[in-house]
Here is the input.
Amino acid sequence: MANAENISLPDLAETGPEVTINGTKIPSTPEGMAVAYSSLVLMALLPIFFGAFRSVKHHQEQKNDENAQLETMTHRDAAMFPIYASCALFGLYVFFQIFSKEHINLLLTGYFFFLGVLALAHILGPVVNSLLPAAFPNRKYHLKFFEGDGEIMEDVIDYQFDRRDLVTLAICGLTGVWYLWKKHWIANNLFGLAFSVNGVELLQLNSVLTGCILLGGLFIYDIFWVFGTNVMVTVAKSFEAPIKLVFPQDLLEKGLDSSNFAMLGLGDIVIPGIFIALLLRFDCSLQKRPGGRVYFYAGFLAYIGGLLTTIFIMHVFKHAQPALLYLVPACTGVPLLVALLKGEIKEMFAYEDNPAPEEKPAVEGEGDATQDATAKEGSSKTAEIKKVK
Here is the structure.
């Protein structure tokens, strides 16, 4: 996933809506908090909305490409994913306890620099292409890298690009350098939004049942690691990487040099987002029927309600909240209820993005006819041998 270390919303709630400067706690203003949380909600909705529609296009391209290798998440994969995520989260926690936080974050920063540049280039590519003039001296390139020799040589890299792609990569590279140099919250958010859109677009669930298993497992995962231990909060505060969206609560007072941030983990966007994208693809499979994109909008509105509930509960109890505690029941329960009321619950659970190819049943008598033909062929060969003798 885009981030296995799912950070609850918002992590700074543990210390309250305050920032400490020279030992003096300065509380955030209600206006600043309203701007911060409104911006976080908006930034969470944009990747889900655009990523879902991009996932429909990506899925259609995969279906039209005969050579595309379709990778689908099985029920077992969905059930095991929270265990893998827990191992990764606890592993990071142990690393931060044993090794220097600065050295770990240095390695992670370099890793996410390359990932962020590529993710951002994937999003901005069409935009840059549309802005470049028609007179732009464009040329195409083909990069191939082989493994082996002679007849056993295999393609490892087979990538085609042009000068427009290089311009996009250069722009995204400058953004990456800005992030490396300043760790500015705007550069962090650009990478975080790019990761989120790509995650919702490319991480496709195959069926609603698989999605329910995945979200149900991560529902328990989020509750355990936030309420049961201090592991997630510790990792979230130590992990310096664009795996969360942040927005300053003191923006009105300090402008772009703000230091008191509210944050939302990318897992709280991507995990419900891939399920909502699946609902949109299910809507598209029912496009011949009236109702439009009812399941997509039901899941999308449910996500908004769950996210606002998370913020409200966090402020009431003054403690970090596992956002999936509220998002999972909302994003799964509301669409399932709509399907139940519309009488389409069986069709929803029967839907698959990439159904397994059906095996053609053997025609009755076909097997017997084949056996008879084989027997006759054997008898004729035996007769020919006898004649020769």
